[in-house]
Amino acid sequence: MTMKIITVRRLAAGTLLASSLALSACGGSAPNPGMASAKAAVVAQTILVHDLGYAGTDGLSSDQRKSLAEWFEGIGIRYGDRVSVDDSGSGSGARRAAIASVLAGYGLLLNDQVPVTVGAGNAGARVVVMRATASVPGCPDWSRPSQLEFEASTMSNYGCASESNLAAMVVDANDLVSGKPHTGTDALTTVKAIETYRGKAGEGTSKVKSTVGQAGSN
What we know:
The chain is of the alpha+beta class. It has five helices and four strands. Strands 1-2-4-3 form a four-stranded antiparallel sheet. The protein is extended and about 75 Å long.
């Protein structure tokens, strides 16, 4: 069973104040005399669940592993998705490890924080995926054109390009709300790309073969 629930929509933290100031005037097309963007990215979080039912203490059956893998393929599991397991049955450790092994095939790890979902207690092993997407409602907005005025206001479309590009490029939309903490720099990881570049000759460095062309006869 799969269900889809829209749980929350919130403004990205960096543009929350600017949007509040702009919208508190006279609506979305109100004058904006400042240089801050009147537009803000909105992060929508979606919860997707897949019930695997009950299983033995050895983890998952072959059919359950296949069902889980097909579900991951169907929803297009990707980086930025937060995957967790809500398991109310026995043998949760083995089952969790089995689910984690299937998820590892997609380059992802299980999350320890499990959101509350309806009917989880009767579902056996439930896999929960929290997915965040970012968008900028109301863009493009040409309701306020560029013209002579005394308010020295920016256009209504001001900021739409930057905010929309940011929403499209961010890998994990949750980072627009609260960024990840800095965990330090790994020097070995930093220089790995440089060592690879230096250890392998780049394209275009080989000598160009010279050939002598001959004019064809008519």
